[in-house]
Task: structure prediction
Amino acid sequence: MRYAIGSKAELIALPDGFRVVGVDLSLGAVNFVVGDFETLPEAKEVALRRAQVGSPIYIYDDEGEVLERYGSWH
Result:
């Protein structure tokens, strides 16, 4: 699985939270933060709505670990 590439600061959620990060492939694989969420179900709902082919969306925890990926790189 491909992952968003960025600094740990970009990929780490707030304490006890979840960060949703997207990758814009039309701009050369540029990361963008969709938002920070208090619960995993909230993060999943937003990630599912935003993900699509060519625009993967990831959910990271407060340790910078990938929990989920939606969408695809191609």
Strands lie at 18-24, 30-37, 57-60, 66-70.
